[in-house]
């Protein structure tokens, strides 16, 4: 039973990391955020990504800006995933 729980928790956390990556890739294509899938991804990921945007300002790059907060957020999500799985394995 504990192995199944670990498996499902790991898959859910992994799925969210894929959603984060999809959101970052989606930001490179201008009109994708206006689709129903795009609106869902924005609504689902913005609370997490917005937290990092408050602390990491975009870097000026030529005529625009480079937002590094999604990169930091994905790395942080990896550490959260590893931490949650380690705590669960210790508890179970």
TrEMBL record:
The chain crosses the membrane at residues 12-29, 68-91. Pfam families: CCB3_YggT. Keywords: Membrane, Transmembrane, Transmembrane helix. Signal peptide: none annotated. Belongs to the YggT family. This is YggT family protein. The lineage of its organism: Bacteria, Bacillati, Bacillota, Bacilli, Bacillales.
């Amino acid at each position: 039973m504990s192995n199944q729980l670990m498996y499902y928790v790991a898959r859910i956390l992994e799925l969210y990391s894929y959603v984060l990556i999809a959101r970052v890739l989606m930001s490179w294509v201008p009109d994708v955020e206006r689709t129903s899938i795009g609106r869902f991804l924005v609504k689902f990921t913005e609370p997490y990504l917005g937290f990092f945007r408050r602390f990491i300002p975009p870097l000026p790059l030529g005529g625009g800006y480079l937002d590094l907060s999604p990169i930091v957020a994905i790395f942080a999500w990896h550490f959260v995933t590893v931490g949650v799985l380690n705590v669960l394995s210790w508890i179970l």
